[in-house]
Amino acid sequence: MMDKWLKTSLLLCIFGFLKEIRPSEPYVTHFLVGHWKNFTTNEVYEQIYPVGTYSTLALLVLVFLVTDYVRHKPVIIADAAFGIAIYSILIWGQGIPLMQFMEVLYGGFMAGEVAYYTYIYASVDRDKYQMVSGHTRAAYLVGRCTSGVMAQVLVSTNAMDYLELNYITLGAMIAATAWAFLLPPTKSSIYFHRDKSIVPSQVGEERGEASTAEEPPQGRAARAFHFLWGDLKAAYTNMSVVKWSLWWALATCGYYQVLSYTQVIWEEIIQESGQQLYNGAVEALYTIIGALSALALGTLPLRWAVLGPPALASCALAQAATIYAIATTNDLWLAYACYIICLAAYQAMVTIASSEIAKQLKEESFGLIFGMNMFIALALQSILTLVVINWLKVPPRGQFVIYGSYFAVLGAGFVLVTLYSMIKGDWRGVTFKSLWLPKTQERAATSQ
Q1: Alpha-carbon span 108 to 82, nearest angstrom
Q2: Distance (Å, whole) CA 219 – CA 432
Q3: How far separated are the first and last CA of the chain, in Å rounded?
Q4: Element (DSSP H or E) covering residue 148
Q5: What would the 3-class secondary structure string for 160-223 be?
Q6: Minimal CA–CA distance to 177: which of 71, 77, 70?
Q7: CA distances from 304 to 152, 307, 362 (A)
Q8: What is Dmax (Cα atoms) for the chain?
Q9: In this structure, are residues 240 and 305 in contact, taking their beta carbons and an 8 Å threshold?
Q10: Residue 197: pLDDT above 60?
């Protein structure tokens, strides 16, 4: 008979897979500017899309706290139900105000992913965290890849048009909502309903250091915020966590800008050249390459405490070059190739960054710290969107020049970090052989 933890993981992974079956997503810009909705490109990227960015930022913290308080399952159900509302409006709604309301719901839909990624930590024993984290990530990637392949096959064979793809997406959202009711409720949560076996501790306690824990106050809310503040303080006073989190937040900000607005560039290119769109295939390909790259890097026992800064600098500079190319090319295939390289590079390095951060954290604080890093990324993305799109009203190609410059500055910053570490002596005696780390020593190296 299947173990309870494995059954719970399987149920959650099927939900995650269903929620990612959104074949209309690679073509949403083309759908909005096409005869179905008749919006202009400027209306889409100046008045509609930014609302989703601002809404996700505004709702993320609230959704995180509500998720912990109501113990996950109600938020997971509501998240999927938001998907039903979003694609119903996209199919049958008309006019900018309704599309903006749809983007508010989309912000809630994206913020609600925190429930998906933290549910499992409140449902299984701590010794299963790493395994079930891999399961949920795999479900996400398989869902996105399947969605992209499905979209491309249906469009290329003329089996469906861009409107009809939305019906499949809507059906998947209905299925995901129904499936969410099958998830077992969680009896505890990380902060508001903390299991008694999870004690208020600092990271140092798990490494055999002296305890600095304080007696938590009385009252559910006070205790929750006491634990929450303790976890934040323990994480962000660790310079290794700060270094990797800084890159994680800054790179994720840029990643979401590229992900959100590249379709506008592709739309301009096809209007000028008349080339056929292959957005679905591109989304599937970048997902596969990103997953394989992340898997390859994640299995290499490298001394990331030393290699981290130059690797992060190289990744950011490569992304800058690809984004500049997207901004200037009129060749759709080159734009597609640069998009795949840019996003796959992010997926590979963000996996390493996440792993290096996680090694420094208590397991129960994973959701909080990654949620906080995401909040910082969304805050930066909102500022970038507000200034570049809403205030300066930079055209799409000009936007991507700015985003390329953003990654160039990020890369230059980590070049300086690398140079500083060399001056400080971190690279003294380092050889190619010494950069490879035996598995038994890998955890010790991350704390150096």
Answers
A1: 7
A2: 55
A3: 44
A4: helix 129-156
A5: CCHHHHHHHHHHHHHHHHHHHCCCCCCCCECCCCECCCCCCCCHHHHHCCCCCCCCCCCCHHHH
A6: 77
A7: 38, 5, 20
A8: 67
A9: yes
A10: no
> Which of 232, 236, 415, 387 has the alpha carbon at shortest distance from 314?
415
185 Cβ neighbours under 8 A, 6+ residues apart: 71, 72, 73
d(C-alpha 116, C-alpha 121), whole Å? 10
430 CB neighbour count, 10 Å cutoff: 13
Q: From CA 399, how far away is CA 377, in angstroms rounded?
A: 18
Amino acid letter, residue 303: R
DSSP string for 253-289: HHHHHHHHHHHHHHHHHHHHH-PPP-HHHHHHHHHHH
| 296's tokens | 């390859």
Q: Whole-angstrom Cα distance, residue 367 to residue 8?
A: 18
43-98 tens-digit pLDDT: 998 999 999 999 999 999 899 889 888 888 999 999 999 999 999 999 999 999 99
Q: Closest by alpha carbon to 260, among 52, 32, 47?
A: 52
Section 309-320 average pLDDT: 93
Q: CA nearest 92: which of 163, 198, 1, 26?
A: 163
- Determine the 3-state secondary structure of 394 from DSSP: coil
Residues 194-210: what's their mean pLDDT? 47
Tokens 């959100």, residue?
260
Residues 378, 257: contact at Cβ < 8 Å?
Answer: no
- What DSSP element (H or E) covers 67? helix 49-70
Closest to 120 in 3D by CA, of 76, 79, 80, 83 = 76
The four Cα atoms 186, 190, 193, 198 give a dihedral, to 10 degrees, of 100
pTM for the structure as a whole: 0.83
Q: Which residue has the tokens 């709702």?
A: 59
Rounded distance, CA 72 to CA 187, Å?
Answer: 10
Q: Are 318 and 341 in contact (CB under 8 A)?
A: yes
* CB atoms inside a 10 Å sphere around CB 158: 7
Cβ–Cβ under 8 Å, residues 58 and 383: no
Beta bridge partner(s), residue 401? none
